[in-house]
Amino acid sequence: MKFLRFYNNDKIKTAYFDGKKVIELEDSIEKVLNSWKNWKYMKNQMKTSYSLESINFAPPITPSKIICVGLNYKDHAEEFKMEIPDEPKIFLKPPSAIIGHGEVISYPKSSNEIDYEGELAIVIMKKGKNIAIEEVHEYIGGYTILNDVTARDLQRKDEQWTRAKSFDTFAPTGPFIETEMDPSSQNISLKINGEIKQKSNTKNMIFSPQELVEFISNIMTLNPGDIIATGTPSGVGEMKSGDIVEVAIDDIGVLKNKIM
After folding, report:
1. Which of 44, 124, 231, 235 could pair with 69 as two cysteines, CB 3.0-4.6 Å apart?
2. Cα–Cα distance between 145 and 210 in angstroms, integer?
3. Quick check: 60 and 176 in contact, CB under 8 A?
């Protein structure tokens, strides 16, 4: 099932997309992700419906943190002639970086080289620490798309990644949270102005989503709504002001943003 959030009269509403229309729901996205399998609950939640074209998407969830994974695709490692890591390489993006589908990525004045990185993202639905891999499915609420926008010149300059990854609007996310999908074999692609720049499959991941949740939860407590971006495939490159970037994952949809 596909869940989303949208703006309505200066408020953010939760909704379900049935393939044709957007159906507003009463509860928060966090509550819905924990309860959607109960059809009686879902039926009682449903309110007004809208056309997909009439809404403005909000970020699908509000995380306490965004945990990102570097170098998690074999083709990406080959592209940069880097060795396959023994364990995940992780870093953080702040929640203030998140924007939704259709919102604008702001080009910061302090950078001259902004790159795209299309990624599958895990949405956590339940608080957890030291999660065993066989229990990970109990903590994953669904999957979405994230563009790990990066000021590459600042990343090289700083060596540390925080500034380059953390500008406001540098974490476009959405459009939906898909609760029923197999993350192990999803086609993932990215286009700039309609031209394919990245094209791979999640089966090329070095560490699976389940392994990532286990690994990260042994470091930090995961909270409901937290996002884990699972890394980007080969083909990373630059975006120019005015470009339209689209990240597609088979069972989720297309995340589309413009950089200005």
Report:
1. 231
2. 17
3. yes
Q: Is 161 left (phi over 0), alpha (psi -120 to 50) or beta?
A: alpha
> 226 with 63: CB under 8 angstroms?
yes
pTM: 0.97
Q: Given the structure tokens 């945990």, which residue do they identify?
A: 67
Instruction: For tokens 């975006």, name the residue.
Output: 239
Contact 21, 49 (CB under 8 A): yes
3 state SS for 21-64 = EEEEECCCHHHHHHHCCCHHHHHHHEEEEEEHHHCEEECCCCCC
Q: What are phi and psi of 53, to 5 degrees?
A: -70, -20
Which residue ranges form the domains of the chain, and what is each CATH number?
A: 2-58 (no CATH), 66-259 (3.90.850.10)
Residues 6+ apart with CB under 8 A from 193: 243, 244
For the stretch 83-136, pLDDT in tens is: 889 999 999 999 999 999 999 999 999 999 999 999 999 999 999 999 999 999
